[in-house]
């Protein structure tokens, strides 16, 4: 393999902060991953992370959020970057049974093999990684 080529591919999409953009993000993800056994999980993860950006940060309304989808032979990585504006970082919560919110990132952390949050009050990036080659139990080989 040539030192400047790779089998990894990266796509990016910036969406306005409107609720209907979540379905656009899902379609975009599904189109890129067409035929992959990870497409359904990736679509669900992008949907949740995009909705979180719109609902819980300055990305909603007049803002925007940015998606990056990186695909390699071993990993599908999905990142959503918001515009911040909140006093707290995204985190997995254990909400009460009657809570209306707070389950989404927990669901993502169960589906993905790894979830990483980077950023500050001016914007956070949540990256979920799905490994393509796993042993039973969801851990990479």
TrEMBL record:
Coiled coil: none annotated. GO terms for molecular function: ATP binding. It holds the Pfam family HATPase_c_2. Residues 19-128 form the Histidine kinase/HSP90-like ATPase domain. CDD domains: HATPase_RsbW-like (cd16936). It comes from the Bacteria. Keywords: ATP-binding, Kinase, Nucleotide-binding, Serine/threonine-protein kinase, Transferase. This is ATP-binding protein.
